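Final report, results section. Input specification for complex C-07:
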Amino acid sequence: HLSVHPSIHTFSHLSAASPACTELETVMLDWLGKMLKLPEDFLAGTEGRGGGVIQGTASEATLIALLAARSKIVKLIQADHPDRSETDIISKLVAYSSDQAHSSVERAGLIGGVRMKKIPTDNKFSVRGDALQKVLEEDRAAGLIPFFFCATLGTTPSCAFDCVTELGPICNAEKIWMHIDAAYAGSAFICPEFRPLLNGIEFADSFNFNPHKWLLVNFDCSAMWVKKRSDIIGAFKMEPLYLKHDHQESGNHSHWQIPLGRRFRSLKIWFVFRMYGLKGLQAYIRKHVGLAKDFESLVRADQRFEISADVVLGLVCFKLKGSNELNETLLKRINNARKIHLVPCQLAGKFVLRFAVCARTTESRHVQEAWCHISHLASELLQELPHLTTVVGITC
Ligand code: PLP
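Structure output:
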């Protein structure tokens, strides 16, 4: 009845008015959490202190985590130093992420009004414990207050993984909130063979990935879990008179997000689970990873090209051996031809092409065709601009 009622907008934010919306979301996020083998702490269960919520995007999840962490550290410091003002504390706060983190992390710092520093990565584009430790020591010595670290599992440029088994214990010891952004890669953790990539999650305070990226759920659906939901609710709960009623409960997801109103997004997850089942979803992920590995083999077999980063999931970073200019021209020709579309990145100063397998209908023949197309355009280019490369190679 409510779903066709013209005043749905008035009611949908109150879980008392639409309890199925809140309840199904809690259950779906617990199911999904179990599929990822998240530690029990992150599940709501019946008595758990953690739980999941659907946000619109990974950007929102990072922002929510940062704001909750900000609120928590301010309260913690004021408990010991009641004379310190919130403004004074916030002016000293510093948040961290990988130098490979998505721009949304930097933006969260911008919106949250805190300093944001990028931690340098190693030769695998991964943040290691010693790199974070070094910056923390320098910042504490300078009188700053480290309070938030956003680790990335599956970075946007190259799908690299920060070393959360090293970073987590440091964050826990230093009372720094660790958020894990696995926007793309998170879907793969439902497969036992990829689950080790999530090791160290037990140290995190919050975790997020986008089922709308790679788990067949339509946009928007970004799944976020917290170990202690009181941290989030404590930061965002507002209860004006017009929202008070006789059935107040802590499960109201409006307290976990920026907007008040909510959509019934968990139904989308429910339908996908019912249609594919865990095995079907695992097969889907494995197929894409297999296709990416096939593409990697094709690239490796052509001496004119090189692979630019480890291929772990469905993304292949590759380039022609030669200058950035050469690769920029190749990308332009590929995208101008409008048969396939590639998005580039910079890795260690090199202009790199990214081949991402992510469409539901992608088959092996599409990957073969894409490679023939790329290889053909590369041959044309190298004939025209031989001075930009040193390698004589094979064609498709
Ligand atoms: N984090 C990572 C690692 C990403 O790759 C992306 C998008 O590509 C995002 C965050 C931003 O995702 P959203 O559009 O859900 O905010």
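The pocket of pyridoxal-5'-phosphate is lined by residues 57-59, 102, 104, 152, 154-156, 181, 183-184, 210, 222 (CB under 6 Å). The radius of gyration is 23 Å. This concludes the modelling results for the funded period.
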